[in-house]
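Same chain as my last thread, 125 residues:
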Amino acid sequence: MSIVINKKAFVAAVALFAVMFAVLPFLTFAGTPGGPTQPPKNITSISNFVTVLQTVLGWMFTIFLILAVVMIIWAAFLYLTAGGDEEKTKKAKQVLIYAVVAIVVALVAAGVPNIVGSLIGSPLP
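reply #2:
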């Protein structure tokens, strides 16, 4: 069994990888001044708990978005190299669906601190 890769599809996939990895630091907010947010050392109040929750969920948001971008790139590569094979295009569609689910989870994770803060009546820091 030999694998035949279309040259145009391969070049397009490599170009897509190059563009996405060039844009990835901007998506992860790597250039934010002060570096990543650190949670407080001791949780002594509801406000500190909300701050820790925001920090952890902020990290999750970034991780899920990075994962989603990588999965979208992988799905594009699978689709471009499928060569019309229905099984391979089905796999690419499944990976793309998982990427969309990762984006939805990331958006929910970004909204949870606001919901928790409003439910417990603590102003968000």
